[in-house]
Amino acid sequence: MRAISYAYGTNHFSQDIVLQDVLRHFWRDFDAHEADLTRFGAIAGREVYETVYHVDHDAPPVLVQHNLDGKRIDRARLSPSHLALLKALAFINRPPYDGDSWHHHFAYGYLIGDPGLYCVLTITNQVAYAIHKYAPEFAEWKEALLSGRAFGATWMTEVQGGSDLGANQTSARFDGQVWRLTGDKYFASGAGLTDYAIATARPEGAPSGPKGLALFLVPRLRKDGSLNFHVRRLKDKSATRAVPSGEVEFADTEAFLIGDSHLGIYYTLENLTVSRLANAAGAMGIVQKALLEVMHRVRHRRSFGHALHDHALIRRDLTDFAVRHAGGLALTFQAIDLFDQAWHERPPYSPKYHLARFFTHLAKTRTADHAAHLTAMAMELFGGLGFLEEYAIARWHREALITPIWEGPSNIQALDFLETLLKLGHGDDVIDHIAAPLRTAPNAHEAVHRVRQEVAALRALPRPEAEWHAKSVLRAVADLAQASSLYRLAETAGERYEKLGQLYLSHFLAREEYPSWAFYDSSVWGWM
DSSP code of 221? Predict the structure, then answer.
């Protein structure tokens, strides 16, 4: 790996000053866990980095449908190193359920970076979440999931609906002892690996649409030990090969109702909030992997008689990396912090929970944009080598391209953003909350005023027109939130973040080119 990656074998936590500053600001117990994250940073830079490259290039999961006796088993065969690593990393899901915080879990996920590997851990976590909060009678299964003895999955998507959960057709029938599900799940992450899944289905007599869905816990095996569902096939994906994604068939599949059948869509959306935060953390983790490779490259590579990082346009690109990475990461952990304070709530939720969900939509959408843009830039900064799959850099762009799609693409985030905005009361209150750290920021008043006007106009529009404009307003609010998060971070982490906040405001809200003073300020672009 040393021959094909600059980042391999380095400590991915120790090198990441931005992560350390963000965690120290948003996580009150960070100091108690810094040594643990330092140890994990070494694992992320060696065992994780090596294994995910190996899986992507040499050993993707393979579906084994029958055993030697011809019996249907539908199991994914993983590389031994892949399977061993997944089991060894199971502990990253424990913190929230052992009295620790979500900051800890998502810091681990960010350091892993690889979205395929982290997806398996995330969907396992989501099943543990549903059991922990709404089905404690299955605590034994939760412990198996948290200990690495079992893997979980979330199966919601169906071919006729995609992100439109209200179009789901999987049915649920209670036979007097257990529920039985019938239907197909079209994009089922963890297919062939899953021991316990959560799945949406519509009980007999329930209304159409999303509010008619209930949430069920589905074990791989029936009570009699036979296979409880079938895996039709695994998907041939551009990336995220470390998670076997496939198609799952339910046919009188045994299942257990989670909580109240009438609240299934709320439980499902809670799980989506967890996975959207994971998506944001993972997206910024991908950015950091690409940045580690880039920073080593621009320091060692020379062109036109100078090191790459001495060229003005390289510094301009590194400035874009720094602004987007710090802004996206600060917003992500602000959203995580809000969720950590509200995640114990149950429906109906308080404004505090809705605010956490609101920030989640902002973070999920904009971090995915940053990841796709910056990993493409990273390839460009490597030149021709950046397009070669044999080296480490090209894969990160392929991996980044899933982050705008998973857990609801930007159109779905915009619709959910619009819905949540209307639940939060007066739009000015939301913007005032977001923009509070910008009171002393130069040139921020105009940006805040413009975003406030856009939000007010959005709230006043007829629904079709509001939907038309929702995505652009979401991104404007997200950009305001990122600039604000950077100013908030400057309160504890110093002047560099105020500079990054100024740059974020000018570039993304005033829509100006980065000012040339940044060329002379290595604290902006050359901090590693």
Answer: B
pLDDT tens profile 263-297: 999 999 999 999 999 999 999 999 999 999 999 99
Determine the Cα–Cα distance for residues 504 and 326; give it in Å rounded to an integer.
10
Longest dimension (CA), the chain: 79
Q: Is the pLDDT of residue 225 over 70?
A: yes
Quick count: other Cβ atoms within 10 Å of Cβ 232? 16
Q: What are phi and psi of 66, to 5 degrees?
A: -135, 150
Give the position of tokens 């901090």.
527
Taking the C-alpha atoms of residue 483 and residue 324, their distance in angstroms, rounded to an integer, is: 10
Alpha-carbon distance 175 to 239, whole Å? 41
CA nearest 281: which of 336, 354, 243, 320?
Answer: 336
Quick check: 413 and 275 in contact, CB under 8 A? no
Beta bridge partners of 117: none
User: In sequence order, what are the residues at sequence separation of 6 or more whose Cβ sits closer than 8 angstroms to the Cβ of residue 270?
Assistant: 129, 133
- What tokens does 165 get? 């959960």
3-state DSSP assignment of residue 423: helix
Overall average pLDDT of the 195-210 stretch: 98
Residue 63: burial class (beta carbons within 10 Å; 0-12, 13-18, 19+): middle
User: What is the pTM (predicted TM-score) of this model?
Assistant: 0.97
Q: How do strand 196-203 and strand 171-174 relate by DSSP bridges?
A: parallel
393 neighbors 385 (Cβ within 8 angstroms): yes
Alpha-carbon dihedral 35, 41, 43, 44, rounded to 10 degrees: 160
Q: What is the dihedral of CA 216, 220, 222, 224, to 10 degrees?
A: -160
Burial track 168-185 (b if 16+ CB lie within 10 A, e otherwise):
bebebeeeeebbbbebbb
Distances (CA, A) of 50 to 44, 58, 185, 201, 501: 9, 12, 32, 39, 35
Question: Cα separation of 398 and 372, whole Å?
Answer: 9
